[in-house]
Amino acid sequence: MLLAVNRANAGNADVPDSKGLSDVMAALERRSGGRLGVAMLDTGSGRRFDWRGDEMFPMCSTFKFLLAAAILKRVDEGRESLTRRIPVSPGDLIPYAPFAETRVNGTPPTVAELCEATMTLSDNVAANLLLPAVGDPAGLTAFVRSLGDERTRLDRNEPTLNSSIPGDPRDTTTPNAMVHSMNRLMVGDALRPSSREQLIDWMVGNKTGDKRLRAGLPRDWRVGDKTGTGNGSINDIGIAWPGARPPILIASYITQTPEGFKQGDAIHADVARAATGAFTG
Q: Which residues form the Beta-lactamase class A catalytic domain (predicted)?
């Protein structure tokens, strides 16, 4: 715990009441029964905070945000088209494919439809069908390296990437690395403006995160997020606009929770409440 407190305080002197925020994170981590990792960035002021921000956490389905961004980057470069169609066959089906299962042997979905299903429904088959377009897991890892993210890596596809084995570096990120990539992709110029706005629209349209970060943010804020869950890991990454101000970015990861743990959603909501207080209070 001492390491985490020191890491959270280091380099965060510009965040009001950094010690108080660290105390909140420590309490939330105790509630989780596992490890909590958080990174927050106010993109307007540059103020930031992290808790276990450089520690490794399983991504689970939060990787799908990076996958959709990698597709859009290829569109920007003229190497992909959002109107290209990719067929869905019975052999592609794996658990949780609410969109893809409706297209088996039917009208092939477009790349855009698969991206939307991946981002807003967390459709596992849609994600697997898109991965070859970016060079499979190794290609997605190369994409995040091009953003300056040296920690995030994807090694497998759905569903095996959700194994969440303690100490296993496969399919992991760090909260700070994810916020770095989110900043490059949704605030910076890593994508063309039209692709950046499309990525944001997919985040805002997500239907799986209402009880996580979104639940702890003011109702009048525009909010987007991407969840991830698997084998004791409960995650959410989000972007939130406090009125007309530039957005706040949050990456919140929980892992190694006890069997039957049910409080993950509420902890993410409390992380978001803490971010609201830290950056707008």
A: 37-250
